[in-house]
Amino acid sequence: MPQFAFILLLLAAFWLLLIRPAKRRQKEQQALLNEVEVGNEIVTAGGLYGIVKHVEEDEVRLEIAPGLEVRVARRAIAGVMSEPEEEELEEEEPAEDADDADEPPQLGEAENRDERTEANLPG
To answer: What CATH architecture is 36-100?
Structure first.
């Protein structure tokens, strides 16, 4: 009889220390995946950081660079880095319109990259 009680005690400890926390983490991950919405900045299990542009049933589209979107399985989302920042985006847009036209364009724009590349070519 004491051996049977010892086995039951081990099974209870196994359940408390391993199974219960795993189920809790699984529920938290599922809740995280269900709460993902357009505008969230997320990180995937593969280490990609991006902003959610479109949400479907089993996948999301992430913008990982300006103008570059990738399809990612929804279950590959490892975490949400920030909530949607719609208010900040609305505040930034008028500020861009108010910029002086005399300022040179940003170096990261495609036109400037082409000009710099052509300037380095011989001929």
So the answer is: Roll (2.30)
